[in-house]
Amino acid sequence: MSGWGKRLAHEEHGLDQVQPQPRPAWPDWPRLVLLALALIAFLRLTWALDAKNLWWDESLSLQRAESPWPALIVGRLVLFDGLTELTTYDQHPFFFFLLQGILLRLAGNSEYVLRLPSVMAATLLVPAVWVWGRLFTRRGVFAPGAALWAALLAAAHPFFLWYGQEARPYALWALMALISTYALARAVERGGEHGGGWWLGYALSAPLFLASHYYAVFLLPVHALLLAHWLWRRNRQAALLAALLILGAGAAVGAYAYWLILVRQGGGANFPEVDWEILFPDLLNAFSLGLSVDITKVWPLDLLCGALALAGAIWSVRSRDVIAAGGWLAPALVLGPVAALLIATTVYPAYMNARHMSLIGGGMILLLGSGLALTGRRQQWVAGALALILLAGMGYSTVNYFTQEEYGKDDFTGLGSYLDDRLAPGDLILLKSPFAERIFRYYLPIAAVDAARAQGAPIAHYGVPALRLEWGERERQVAELVNQYRRIWYIVSNTHPYMDLEGRLDRWMDEHLFRVQETSFFSHSSLRASLYLPEVPVYNEQPPPPAQPVDAAFGDLIGLAGYEVGRAYTPALGLPVTLYWQIFSPTQDRYKYILKLVEMDPGGSGQPVRELAVTEREPYDGAIPTLYWAPGQTIVEYSELPPTPWPRPATPEEAARYRLLLQVYRADTLEKLPVTRAEGLEIAPDGQSLLLPTLPETFTGR
């Protein structure tokens, strides 16, 4: 019989009677290795931490963290579509967002700050699995070396890289699962008499564990069993009562979550029914190689991880003595919550994907560490070789996470830059859906739109479909809006598509408006920006009359029949310019134009002395290229000059110094066309630049 068995035999194998062996005089090197692994984990987690944009779930974290404290605690979120508000409640408890709220108030709301609580949780997971590994090693449950193997795997784990760099509570939840259970295990290990500090630790950590994620209740049966096992020999009634109290607390939390998510808000539609044949492979892959791999390509490595974890689990329950020493607890950290989830699923579907079970991640890493240590009992090189294989797979997953578009997040920064240079007075921005309003506002120039609108600019943004209208009313609202503006930007993020799963609004836009162009932001993104016009801008007969008709030609090929210049309301928005193009003979070539706002030499030389803003593109960015133009048509292009500190001339004479400079050139050869006709207009000395007057009110507003 083992030393643990001899010690426990006369105690009838009760965990409450365990007297731990004297701690070995651990050399300094394991702690140095642990420190190095924790540092590696931290550096890996902080590297390119803000390279990926927030996604919709993370924007909910931002919105909640910046809310007033009472709203943050209860999870109250207010959604806004530009006209009406809708109050909803978050599906997660408050602890993670409380940490975020503190950091945001101290250091701002950058992606780095928002994700820092997850970084710290994933970093602390390394010492957390190490202390668990040492505890099980001291008890004879794990083979020597399991603690460091587990710490190594925790430092390199792709799943906790993914959620260690996401502003959501899943990494913190996994950490709190280990901390709370460890505090309880140490408290009962001391027989309850000398474990006051551990009892206090459990009393503090268990509520925080439950306040990290409602699915924490799935681990409470393990806590109940651990406590009941300790109390059983002392007082069976007390053991049953304690177990019932813990299970009752879990049931109360679960019932509240059920009421909040399903009853109060009608949620849960995104929880599909999942049986164990799907659940087990999904969890095994997630907690082996993470989410940034194709499970069909790495299945052999998943099986290797599963085999090692299974070996570690079996070794943990290899005898009654080991079970009595707490060996059952190692596999219970993984299997207990999974069993509880499957039981809950018989009542109502309760699973979305592996992040909803991240509380088993630490236990899975411990079993993997135990399996590696077990293989190294006779031949250390075998454990080393297996560890290298696992680390190679984790490294492959990590590289995918950082480099492959399919594992990226929507490029809201790219969308913001795209709109920064294009938005101008006269534009309507429709944001689909209103549930993503906070992330749109975070990355897009929505604040500039609001500021310009407050100054009277004809520009607006709305969330669509409207929150509180039926479909017919929603379509009528959009119809009323689009006819009031010169251009309509339709911004779609399908990370929350539930208001329009059938794409009814998309079809309405295509049926009633003219889509000029559509821009997607990387191949695997759901994020796109479409530019619509109220009507087709190509006129075969009489076009709408321009505010400033002109008669000009470039190379006797492309003509300008008129132009209009809007008003510069704010430096944060562009200057609206409308160009009325014509062509005199068909061409097989594509032509671009350069449009500049310039300040002319006040000495009368006819030379521009300063460029303020420049636009260079094909008409409608190539959507209506010159090779499709026909003689007799007029192509009305609603263009703009990008934002700049617009001039503020004090007198009409000063305003007269500013001109629009227009050039046309062949796209393939870059050859500029000469200005061959300019009735009543100026031509710059280069002979290739047409100078168009601007109105004083463009800048002064008078």
What's the helical proportion of residues? 40-55%
Quaternary organisation: single chain
Q: Give the strand tally.
A: 18
The gyration radius over C-alpha positions equals: 33 Å
Order of the strands making up the biggest sheet:
8-14-11-10-9-16
Q: Major β-sheet, in short?
A: 6 strands, antiparallel
What structural category arises from helix and sheet content? Answer: alpha+beta
Mean pLDDT: 90
Q: State the separation between the terminal residues, measured CA to CA.
A: 98 Å
Q: Residue ranges: pLDDT <50 for 5 or more in a row?
A: 1-19
Task: Give the overall shape, derived from the CA principal axes.
Answer: elongated
- Continuous helix count: 25
How much of the residues is beta strand, in percent?
15-25%
Describe the overall structure.
- It is built from 25 helices and 18 strands.
- With 702 residues, the chain is an alpha+beta fold.
- Strands 8-14-11-10-9-16 form a 6-stranded antiparallel β-sheet, with no helix packed on it. Strands 4-3-5-7-6 form a 5-stranded mixed β-sheet, sandwiched between helices. It has a 5-stranded antiparallel β-sheet with strand order 13-12-15-18-17, with no helix packed on it.
- A hairpin with a 3-residue loop joins β9 and β10.
- α11 runs antiparallel to α12, α16 runs antiparallel to α17 and α17 runs antiparallel to α18.
